[in-house]
Amino acid sequence: MFRVSSAHEEGGERVFSVNTEKFLGHEGKVTGLRAHEVVMKDGKFERVDGSDFELEADLVLLAMGFTGPERPGLLTDLGVELNERGNVSRDKDFATTVPGVFVAGDMGRGQSLIVWAIAEGRAAAAGVDRYLMGHSALPAPIKPTAVPQR
């Protein structure tokens, strides 16, 4: 269903059925995107010849969907443990297996809604406060094991 929501009414142009080929930039700053149009054929997107274009940009936000925590880099370097689902393990205070490292939202829960990440972020802040201060008066509205009501 195509519809315009209040978030869309704030401006910006939406472009559909395109594939980004490359980020464009100068001196380490993004200046645009190079892209082309695509059509769906046999369940796959195919390039439309001659449809190449460039979009100017000061900022590019990637909305790629969550496929699990990115292991190489920070997680591997820190040595945090992962759970059976491949998410970062955490305790009742949202602490990982590495002292002083906390996790909330998709990183610990897995793919979920932003409202869960917001609630977990608040609860994790209380866990960080307890870690640093020995106690906390901050609200912890959710437990790491909470699940949606059915």
Could you characterize what this model shows?
With 150 residues, the protein is of the alpha+beta class. The chain is built from three helices and four strands. The protein has helices at 71-78, 106-109, 114-133; strands at 18-26, 29-41, 44-47, 53-56. The mean pLDDT is 87.
Note the topology:
Elements: E1 18-26, E2 29-41, E3 44-47, E4 53-56, H1 71-78, H2 106-109, H3 114-133
Antiparallel strand pairs: 1-2, 2-3, 2-4
| Fraction of residues in H or I helices | 10-25%
What class do helices, strands and sheet pairing give? alpha+beta
Mean pLDDT: 87
The quaternary organization reads as: single chain
User: pLDDT below 50 for ≥5 consecutive residues: which ranges?
Assistant: none
Task: Give the end-to-end Cα distance, rounded to a whole number of Å.
Answer: 26 Å
Number of DSSP E strands: 4
Biggest beta sheet attributes: 4 strands, antiparallel
- Provide the β-strand percentage band: 15-25%
Radius of gyration: 21 Å
Give the topology string: H per helix, E per strand: EEEEHHH
- So what's the overall shape? elongated
Number of helices: 3
